[in-house]
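Researcher: Here's a chain I'd like modeled. Treat it as a single chain, no partners, no ligands.
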Amino acid sequence: MPNSFKPLLWSFKWDAIDIEEDKEDIIVNVINEGTLDHWRWVIKIYGKDEIKRVLMSRLSSEFHPESRNLAEVIFGIPYFRRAR
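Model: Modeled as a single isolated chain. Structure tokens:
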């Protein structure tokens, strides 16, 4: 993982991050706090369909409103979950 992700994943032990095992947390943090370069990397690694699947499985309240709106457009997300 690029070192530029360290500030986004500050709560993780950096050397223990597994890009498959921690995929959902990585995606959520990038959507909320990442730059365009972070978004490009995540799209390259996971693909738009997998990102869309992850985002649609999460609560809408997990995302900043502006990040959620951009993700809806970029990934074609019809809805986010509203309740558990």
